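[Archive record]
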Amino acid sequence: MLEGKLRDSISKSNAKALKRDGYLIANIYGKGQKNVHCAFKRNDFIKYMRTKSNLIFPIKISNDIYEVVVQEYQKDPITSEILHVDMMFAHKGVVAKFKVPIKTSGSPIGLKNKGVLVFSRKRIAVKCDASVLPNHYMLDVTPLDVGHTILIRDLPQIDGVTIVEKPSVAVVGVIKAK
């Protein structure tokens, strides 16, 4: 389980001091709950994120355990180092917006025809209860040739999960290499 500490102050100087000590600043928010300002050891956080298998995961802050989902990372544009992370409480029985990752399987036919696989969306916004939240959308890209795409409307339907993006938006496709 990932462990963090509660931030005493949310001032800029406090955040800078924590970052110097190797901490990652985080905020946790959700419907009907008070925001939690916390910090995690940067290396522990990265290791945990790489090994977790579910979108919803438990964290321990002080003596409290919360079920959360990562909503957004803020990265340094030059070094790609994670600066800040926003998380949301994942309460069972509460409908909320989540971002679900897209994963692909197979090798597109279009790669043999001098094409390149391009992701238009790496995460899809959905609205659902935390109990039915999918861990990812798995897409088979094997039949894709140059010029073919998979759109939001082509994604598999999951009971209780509503995709909140336009149906005509491309998710993944194969384009001609230059």
User: Anything to note?
Assistant: Residues 42-51 form the longest helix (10 residues). DSSP finds two helices and 13 strands in the chain.
